[in-house]
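Here is an idea for our session: we take a single protein and study its fold together. Which protein we use is up to you, so please pick one and set it down. Once you have written the record down, we can walk along the chain together:
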Amino acid sequence: MKVNHLNLTVTDVPEARKFLETYFGLTCEGSRGNGFAVMFDDDGFVLTLMKGSKVQYPKTFHIGFPQENKEQVDQINQRLKEDGFDVEPPKQLHGYTFYVEAPGGFTVEVLC
């Protein structure tokens, strides 16, 4: 069985969409104004973004974007830093990983 899609409620659909396109290569295949967007990854996974006025995910909730190697993790981390995101350097935990708060109110993990 394969997970087909995930819906995230976010406070700012256009900014969350731009973030996911810029750093993780998702593509938007459709939207309805500033309140909804349908995004796809290279494997056909569907991520929908829906506007909500209040977003409160549990503290440990996050979505993950695995990379092929540490160099790719480091590159994304550096790009995020250069673009003004508050990110710690990657650490070796359950993998080589770091977390970033994405625009719209959700957390992203980048790891290999």
The chain has one domain: 5-52+61-111. The beta strands are 5-10, 27-32, 36-40, 46-51, 63-66, 91-92, 96-102, 106-111.
